[in-house]
Structures are given as structure tokens and as C-alpha cells.
Amino acid sequence: MVTFWGGKRKTLVTAQLHYLFMSSTWILPDDLAVPDFPADHPGPGAPVPQHWSKCFGCGDDQPTGLGMEFTTGEGLEVIGRFEVAKRYQGGPGFIHGGILMTAFDEAQGMACNAALRSAVVTAHLGIDFARPIPLGAVLELRSRVEGTVRRKVYTRSEARIVDGPLADPDVVVGSSYGLFIVVGHEHFEKGKDFVDGMPTGDQDISAV
Ligand SMILES: CCCCCCCCCCCCCC(=O)SCCNC(=O)CCNC(=O)[C@H](O)C(C)(C)COP(=O)(O)OP(=O)(O)OC[C@H]1O[C@@H](n2cnc3c(N)ncnc32)[C@H](O)[C@@H]1OP(=O)(O)O
């Protein structure tokens, strides 16, 4: 077992090294607070709208993006899906690792937004790539908030192939832990000078 401090902000990461399998675990703080279940939560299976139509992860006005679609899961879980298009290729026939990381980033951000009804940005993200993911696979990412400490939001997510090549809903093909920070609307004010279009959705950042 190897323990190290990751990033300049000292996120404690413990990497467990095994002969056949490598995974990392994230040490959660002792004073973690579990968020209350929102009173107006729609229950499992409800669509979760895109947060910004130009978003590379979920926007429907971003032709090269992942086009992830989200629904609510059990409890505070959020379920995201997308198909691994040919343009997301890294090694021959398989997904590029950065694309999977983008999907986790999006999915865990959406989980924060659904649980806390607050805007968040990613501060730290860690990924375990457990299995190669072929082009054409439909990935399902189940994400949730594990708890908060002040503005810090601790999240986890697992990905499975649920349709297409190598589909097996019992096999976790990748997992992720992430620290998100709750920010105010002023955080996005700085981006308004650079944005490339007008918002088209109710929750679009530039509309807030
Ligand atoms: C309606 C709106 C809808 C919105 C939809 C949202 C859905 C989103 C879906 C989209 C998904 C895609 C999302 C994207 O891709 S977001 C794009 C990628 N992320 C960014 O661009 C973020 C860039 N970074 C920043 O802007 C600032 O650094 C932030 C805002 C993150 C913090 O700067 P700020 O000055 O505000 O706060 P602070 O410095 O006092 O820090 C506060 C606390 O956090 C702790 N800390 C900070 N960093 C780290 C770290 N790396 N490891 C460990 N800890 C860290 C820090 O120690 C402190 O802890 P404590 O002192 O309390 O103990």
C-alpha cells in the first residue's frame, strides 16, 4: 500500500497495489455531513435537465460533445448514459481515457447539483480504469454525493457497459472519486465574455 498527498491542496489518496488489479481509495473526512434529501425530489427515473446547452458533457447545442442524458436514481443517486462514439477513440477500438474522465466529471457534477441544488466546480478528480471500453458501448454512470464539509462536496461514481459490445451490467469498467466546490453565480460571470452563444435551457449558467 502506498499513501501520498495528491495535488497542491493535499488531497489524501491511498493507492492499493495488487498483483492483478490496481485501485485507489479515497479517505473521506471524519466531519462529513450527509445532505438532507430534497423535499421536492421527484423520485427515481425522472429526467435531470442539462445544466448548460453548450456543455461538452450534457449540452444538446454542442455537436462534438458527449450528449450525456441523466435521470434520478435511488436516493440521491444520479444516472448518466452516453454511447462511446468513434470520435472518442484512444487506443485502437477503445475509448480515450480522458473522455471517460470527462464523463465522470459531468456525472459527479450533476449529482452535486441534484443533491444540493447549488452550482459546483470540480477541484479534484481521481479515476480507476478497470476494463477497456469498446467503441459503440453504452456506458451508464451512477454517481452520488457522499457528503459535504463546508463548501466541499465529496462524490463517487461507477461506470458499467449496459448495452452494445462487451455489455455486462455486473462489471464495473471504471470508477471515480471527486471533490467539488460550491460556488456562487459570480464564478461564472467571468466566463460571460468568452461564451459562444446564447443559453437555450432553463438551467443554463449564463441565465442565472
Ligand atoms: C444553476 C446552476 C447549475 C450549475 C450546474 C452544476 C453542474 C455541474 C456539472 C458540470 C461538471 C463539470 C464541472 C467542471 O468541469 S468545472 C471546470 C473545472 N474546474 C475549475 O475550473 C475550477 C477551477 N478552480 C477554482 O475556480 C477554485 O480553485 C475553486 C472554486 C475550486 C476553489 O477556490 P475558492 O477560492 O472558491 O475556495 P478555496 O480555495 O477557499 O477552497 C475551498 C475549500 O476547498 C478546498 N480545496 C480547493 N481545491 C482543492 C483541491 N484541488 N483539493 C483539495 N481541496 C481543495 C480548500 O482547501 C478549502 O477547504 P477548507 O478550507 O474549507 O477546508
TrEMBL record:
<keyword id="KW-0472">Membrane</keyword>
<keyword id="KW-1003">Cell membrane</keyword>
<keyword id="KW-0966">Cell projection</keyword>
<keyword id="KW-0443">Lipid metabolism</keyword>
<protein>
    <recommendedName>
        <fullName>Acyl-coenzyme A thioesterase THEM4</fullName>
        <ecNumber>3.1.2.2</ecNumber>
    </recommendedName>
</protein>
<feature type="domain" description="Thioesterase">
    <location>
        <begin position="93"/>
        <end position="164"/>
    </location>
</feature>
<dbReference type="InterPro" id="IPR029069">
    <property type="entry name" value="HotDog_dom_sf"/>
</dbReference>
<keyword id="KW-0963">Cytoplasm</keyword>
<keyword id="KW-0053">Apoptosis</keyword>
<comment type="similarity">
    <text>Belongs to the THEM4/THEM5 thioesterase family.</text>
</comment>
<dbReference type="InterPro" id="IPR052365">
    <property type="entry name" value="THEM4/THEM5_acyl-CoA_thioest"/>
</dbReference>
<keyword id="KW-0378">Hydrolase</keyword>
<dbReference type="InterPro" id="IPR006683">
    <property type="entry name" value="Thioestr_dom"/>
</dbReference>
<keyword id="KW-0809">Transit peptide</keyword>
<dbReference type="GO" id="GO:0016787">
    <property type="term" value="F:hydrolase activity"/>
</dbReference>
<dbReference type="Pfam" id="PF03061">
    <property type="entry name" value="4HBT"/>
</dbReference>
<dbReference type="GO" id="GO:0016020">
    <property type="term" value="C:membrane"/>
</dbReference>
<dbReference type="GO" id="GO:0005737">
    <property type="term" value="C:cytoplasm"/>
</dbReference>
<dbReference type="GO" id="GO:0006631">
    <property type="term" value="P:fatty acid metabolic process"/>
</dbReference>
<keyword id="KW-0276">Fatty acid metabolism</keyword>
